[in-house]
Amino acid sequence: MSRVLIADDEEKIRRVVGAFLQDRGYDVKEADCGRTAVRVAGDFQPQVILMDLSMPDINGIETMNQILQFLPGCKMIFITAYGSIESAVAAMGKGAFDYITKPFRNDDLLLRIQKAFKVAELEERVERLEDQLTDRYSFSNIIGDSVPMKQVLELVRKVMGKDTTVFITGETGTGKELIARTIHHHSPRRGGKFVAINCAAIPETLVEDELFGHEKGAYTGASSKRMGRFEEADGGTLLLDEVCELSPPAQPKLLRVLQEREITRIGGTGTVPVDVRVICATSRDLLEWVKAGKFMEELYYRLNVFPIRLPPLRERKEDISALVDYFIPKFKRTLGTSVVGIADDAMEMLKSYNWPGNVRELENAVQHSMLMAEGTVIEPEHLPLKIQGVPESRGKKEQITLAEMLSEVERRTILRVLGEEGGNRTRAARRLGISRQTLITKIQAYEIK
Fold this sequence. Notes:
Largest sheet: 5 strands, parallel
Structural class: alpha/beta
Strand order of the largest sheet: 2-1-3-4-5
Helix content: 40-55%
């Protein structure tokens, strides 16, 4: 419930406003002076405090300062007399959210309180998202205790606090973007945006527009000004994935941006300063491209300031067990399976396989195997045929298609939700976000008993 503390030495205001807010669903506590407000706030933990600017013991601003030390996200709305508006404005400069002058209408007060709760909720949501990002890109999510991965993590720790260009190499599926995001989220730039662009996915004619943007009227169809990725990442980090695929005309312009720290939009006459940390990634041997004349040598050395090579999975097979132990609980709920582990002989098969698709392929194989398994353990026969060493064209089992995989996920999810709701179809349908009739149709289609 939304909690409001009313701190005012006038009992009538506390009583009337308190009853008004309680009638609208708020949980309300009262305090008749500043010291009491501090004590009650510590126990009650209100999201919003409605407080008189002038109180008999300690004034409202001092009370606010004490409360914000242990409730930094609390929103303070001051009640003030008309002649004290200047003091109320000064209080906003010191951390107050809003003020209202006496006499006030309850509806006006309610609007201010609702706004305060909305802002507090948004700030809390942003904080949760930041915490999730921190958790997602913590070092604990870079799975691997092998010597090659320890060396990678040591390099990441050395460079993450330095504002220098990083050059990440590694085969497809080794986790280059994860490493880049981890560097960003542990760097002084973590408050800025992380922008990733796949140079191989941009048509050659659009590379400059994508990187540097354009001015209105720069070409037919440019009906408005557009920021490029460098401007979008200003103050943060820009990942240039598969930078080797950058078109020859764009390469000298990228070099100039790295040297001058400014860009020129297409159709523009002036320059725009940009403060961006560049991280590059490639699955190719870029030096060979330089020797072949496909990539500027000067740009290569400008990018290759701090190289980090990610080892392929076949070079760190001792990490496979830890990766599987990480993936199984990660997918258990989303896939709706009961799988909690893997048999030793199935694990040996995983370790014997060469993994051309690296960690990404292992992740997909674990998901496939969890869907194929009927019990709690992945057995050898549940693994993809190529990992079992069975040619797919002669395999006894067909590889499941994407549509079949999605259907199996849906079937298991329905089973799980029905079980959790004791077989009640109405409640299960509500949780699944579908109508009861749709659920009945799916139950019949999947032959769920």
